[in-house]
Amino acid sequence: MYDLNGKVSIVTGAGGKRGLGRAIAKRLAREGSQVAVVDKIPALPQDEIEGWRGIQSVVSEIEAIGAQAFGLTCDITKPEEVDRTVGEIAARFGRIDILVNNAGVHFNRSLKELSDDIWENQLRVNLYGTFYCSRSVAKKMIDFGRGGRIVNIGSFRSKAGAPGETAYCASKFGVIGLTQCLALELAPHNILVNAVCPSLTDTDINIDMFENISIREGIGMEEARKRVNEKVASEIPLGRLGTSDDVASLVAFLSSDEASFITGQSINVNGGLFTAI
User: Fold this and answer.
1) Same-domain check for residues 197 and 208
2) Among 9, 27, 31, 164, which residue is least crowded by beta carbons within 10 Å?
3) Contacts made by residues 247-251, CB under 8 angstroms, sequence distance 24+
4) Which DSSP state fits 181?
5) One domain, residues 179 and 229
6) Quick one: DSSP state of residue 127?
7) What is the rounded distance in angstroms from the CA atom of residue 12 to the CA atom of residue 171?
8) What are phi and psi of 4, to 5 degrees?
9) Going residue by residue through the chain (277 aa), what tens digit of pLDDT does each one get?
10) One domain, residues 46 and 76
11) Which residues, at least 6 apart from 114, have a Cβ–Cβ distance to it below 8 Å?
12) Which helix (H) or strand (E) element contains residue 57?
């Protein structure tokens, strides 16, 4: 649908078996882009037991559809590591056209349970990491002189707070402010910056919430996941959870020339949730 042939994309947080990053990386590849698949660790131990090799599995899936990809490990909370990784990608491909800041963490804690470590971790990954990656890639895009696209993955919690979500909301609200500022500053270089704000999708970012419910109610993890997902789906006018592919479709559009006059926006992918409440 969108012609990304010859483009080079970076997708952070892309190694999860059930994550948005995997779907986004594969969708950009199907549109013709070469993809750098980035995550903090090669794979989670539990996933490896189940045969999932993290970033290498995503690379293999992309190669199977005839596109080029390679995987890199990078802790996006460390600016020097980000710069080194971005430099390696630029040297390998000779250009960077698209950055998708997808890496994120989510810990659900009430204010009295919210430790400094959890507060700082969510800000460092969700907000600082997005900033470090955007700064490093934007410098390369400016040097290459071809313009580019930066797509930040926000959340419906970028726009509406909730009990137990103090740290997560603070970090994701920050991503929206960062998106707007970068869009204005980078517009003269034809670098477009937008955010995608999904409602709950069936990924593992909420695993902390599922664990808490599992312990509190004495049920299994999958049952906890099912209960949360069913409750959220019942509140969405379209009657279902969003999927990773729903999010990936919007990312692909914003990465393409079809979105050449859209920047500084934070676009909901939520099945009508915010138009109804």
Assistant:
1) no
2) 164
3) 247/20, 247/23, 247/24, 247/153, 247/196, 247/198, 247/201, 248/20, 248/23, 248/24, 248/26, 248/27, 248/28, 249/27, 250/196, 251/24, 251/27, 251/28, 251/100, 251/151, 251/153, 251/196
4) H
5) no
6) I
7) 17
8) -110, 20
9) 789 999 999 999 999 998 999 999 999 999 999 999 999 987 766 676 678 999 999 999 999 999 999 999 999 999 999 999 999 999 999 999 999 999 999 998 999 999 999 999 999 999 999 999 999 999 999 999 999 999 999 999 899 889 989 999 999 999 999 999 999 999 999 999 999 999 988 877 667 666 666 767 777 767 777 877 888 788 889 999 999 999 999 999 999 999 999 999 999 999 998 875 4
10) yes
11) 166, 167
12) helix 55-64
Together in a domain, 58 and 127? yes
Alpha carbon distance 140, 62 (integer Å): 24
Distance CA 141, CA 113 (A): 42
Place of tokens 């979500």: 165
Amino acid letter for position 53: R
For residues 13 and 102, is the Cβ–Cβ distance under 8 A? yes
Q: In which element (H, E) is residue 34 found?
A: strand 34-39
Paired with 70 in beta bridges are 36
Note if 2 is an active site residue: no
Residue type, 98: I
Catalytic member of 2, 128, 132, 168: 168
